[in-house]
Specification:
Blueprint (H helix, E strand, L loop, with lengths): L1 H7 L3 E7 L9 E6 L3 H19 L4 E3 L6 E5 L3 E6 L1 H7 L1 H5 L11
Length: about 110
């Protein structure tokens, strides 16, 4: 449902990261970008409404006033919505990808 909603709202570079075995905070983390703060805020609001309608509980949302980076905690799924520059700076995908790819180079 999360990925479908983001796709409908034309999110850019949506990535789903399985967290099982890496963290107990959630089962999945979804990272996506919007082209502007306005799009990021709109995607976050729509996704929050859909989660509330489908599951009967409001997700915790942080960062909506500035909408550079909005975090939506829906329990089993955590969603990070970024403006492209902010996403590049924090690079969450790389941080959470540990153990997924073989190490390169010599230790």
């Amino acid at each position: 449902m999360v990925l479908s909603s983001l796709d409908d709202d034309q999110a850019v570079e949506t990535v789903s990261i399985p967290l099982a075995g890496k963290s107990s905070i959630a089962d999945y983390m979804v990272v996506a970008s919007g082209k502007s703060t306005r799009q990021v805020a709109s995607m976050a609001q729509k996704l929050s409404e859909k989660i509330k309608a489908e599951f009967g509980r409001s997700p915790r949302v942080e960062g909506l006033p500035t909408a550079d980076w909005v975090l939506i905690d829906a329990g089993d799924v955590i969603v990070h919505l970024f403006r492209p520059e902010v996403r590049t700076f924090y690079n969450l995908e790389r941080m959470w990808a540990f153990g997924d790819t073989p190490a390169t180079g010599n230790a």
